[in-house]
Design brief:
With 63 residues, the protein is mainly α. It contains three helices and no strands. The chain is flat.
């Protein structure tokens, strides 16, 4: 994995996040409210599951 790959990945995340904020700002607000209502342990588990999913997808696409 080169610096270009990392930069490309970061740029893609920013593009996708920018689209979400531009096209559905009220949805973002509702999602943040839902996150606030979740217990801390649930948010931590969700974050770890997302991390694991991303790593698995990265491994699949890179092989």
């Amino acid at each position: 994995m080169s610096g270009t790959d990392i930069g490309t990945g970061i740029a893609m995340v920013l593009v996708i996040e920018g689209l979400v904020y531009a096209l559905a700002p009220s949805l973002v607000e509702r999602m943040l409210e839902a996150l606030r209502a979740m217990p801390l342990e649930t948010r931590r588990t969700l974050g770890l599951a997302t991390l694991a999913s991303g790593l698995i997808l990265l491994w699949i696409f890179r092989n």
